[in-house]
Amino acid sequence: xxxxxxxxxxxxxxxxxxxxxxxxxxxxxxxxxxxxxxxxxxxxxxxxxxxxxxxxxxxxxxxxxxxxxxxxxxxxxxxxxxxxxxxxxxxxxxxxxxxxxxxxxxxxxxxxxxxxxxxxxxxxxxxxxxxxxxxxxxxxxxxxxxxxxxxxxxxxxxxxxxxxxxxxxxxxxxxxxxxxxxxxxxxxxxxxxxxxxxxxxxxxxxxxxxxxxxxxxxxxxxxxxxxxxxxxxxxxxxxxxxxxxxxxxxxxxxxxxxxxxxxxxxxxxxxxxxxxxxxxxxxxxxxxxxxxxxxxxxx
Length: 299
Fold this sequence. Notes:
The model has no long low-confidence stretch (mean pLDDT 87). The chain is mainly α. It contains 13 helices and no strands. It has one domain. Helix 1 crosses helix 11 (205-230), helix 4 runs antiparallel to helix 5 (114-130) and helix 11 crosses helix 12 (241-259).
């Protein structure tokens, strides 16, 4: 029964993320929108670029989906509702995200097209800059929980959620997560106004469905991680535990997808400079502050 609830919850949440993305991008709320878009793509011809690297071209979207699913595997929706409870789950989440980079490089290189290749290398620079801003906030939530288990991290927030205990870490992880999921204003790899779709420009039909599904699952995974690390996971005043996880996850996904569109897209060099010159020093300061709080105010 728990396995059915877990699978149904993840499918529902992924579909919810797709509905939210269509809503914020088109200003139209259509519950059937993702299904209509999928059916339309299924009717497209699967075009293979003439000089493509066939292996990279085919594997890139699939690997993106697999990496997103792997990162989601260590995220608990409620006690007992988790694919695998690893003692080092927080680190596994970060390690799984590393394969998103491989998938994006393969998807950008495979078609042998200029737009895709530029998009793939943009994501490489973006990930290298923002990967540390994922790891360092994870360090601070693990410091408070005295564990890398995602379940222990949620339980450590029973008295006070981490968003209040370490708000700086929350902001850093939120922006880094948006960069990992390449949502606006961090959507440089697929910037439609500049690269005509970038990494996904050469994909059509079923391949494009898989690529976009992988991105939806990636957004879901990042949103779920933010909920687990900073918003108390399944903790809530009443009702089923998993329902609170769903509400929080969809709320964070809506914040990521809508809030980022209010910010202008800027040059990739500027984004990287902000990460190295501002983000990482702030993350180091956050580690120091949380270390002091853990010793002085061990909530």
